[in-house]
Design a protein that fits this description.
Largest sheet: none
Structural class: mainly alpha
Strand content: under 5%
Number of strands: 0
Number of helices: 2
């Protein structure tokens, strides 16, 4: 043996549904077009509604990819 330490690295994989929700949530926090102060996601801007739609599809298992 060389006496060196072996380092194990674990690849961090994000669940598609949680990734889609995170992208939508981050968008709503920064959106100046109206997503920040609405009561439902459907009342937000176009990008916010698209991100929410992607989240809904991944939540029910019909969408596997997110933007």
């Amino acid at each position: 043996m060389t006496g060196g330490r072996v380092r194990a690295t674990a690849r961090r994989v994000e669940i598609p549904m949680l990734r889609a929700y995170r992208l939508w949530f981050e968008h709503t926090r920064k959106c100046a077009d109206g997503c920040k102060h609405v009561h439902t996601a459907q009342d937000g801007c176009e990008i916010g509604r698209e991100l929410w739609g992607t989240y809904r599809l991944t939540r029910i298992g019909k969408g596997g990819t997110t933007p």
